[in-house]
Design goal:
By secondary structure, the protein is mainly alpha-helical. The chain has a single domain, classed as yeast vps74-n-term truncation variant domain like (yeast vps74-n-term truncation variant fold, Orthogonal Bundle), CATH 1.10.3630.10. It has 9 helices and 3 strands. The chain has helices at 3-12, 22-40, 61-68, 79-87, 90-101, 123-134, 138-146, 154-159, 163-198; strands at residues 43-46, 49-52, 77-78. The chain has a 3-stranded antiparallel sheet with strand order 1-2-3.
Amino acid sequence: MTTARDLALVALDAAPGRTVEQGDLSLALAGAEVIDLLDAGALSLAEDRLVPGPPGGTDDRLLEEAAAALVRDEPFEGVEDWLWRRGRGLAATYVEDLESAGPGTRGRGRRKPLLGRRVELDPAARARAEERLASGEPVLAILAAAVGAADEKPEAERDVTDDAISTVLAAVGNAMMELEAVRQRKEIEDAAFDNIWRGF
């Protein structure tokens, strides 16, 4: 399993009371794909630019799609630009892919809706993702905490020693803060609009 798939599983199986926003998850999944592609040797980072490697090299359909979507012309694409472009609708893509991956089990009350519906998950894949998260693997721990699917573990950031991965994780954090600022602006504008209508 890839980091992106494990993150999607952890987010879909988040405990009751935890809210995972679709936009946050999409950005984090795009970041996880970059990390998976780095691990597979399918790309490298030059400062914050994604430099594509040779095509192929992964055995995951969605990762292959991600690799095929990389900009292959210099000056290449910045990590944050990638997160916004690739991340658009990516949570829904992973949800659909996980739903079609195998039989789930009905009646497991811990699963909560994402994208407005309940999702059946492959029990073995769920168990592997949960085990990886419980093991304290830092990248998954950081991304799961960022989307609200797990508690923050401050020590996880110290355990990331690869500069390229640190760059990607920082870009995910920045993009999510930008998305939250957009949400807050929209709430303020909506509230102001409602107040204008109440005045008539």
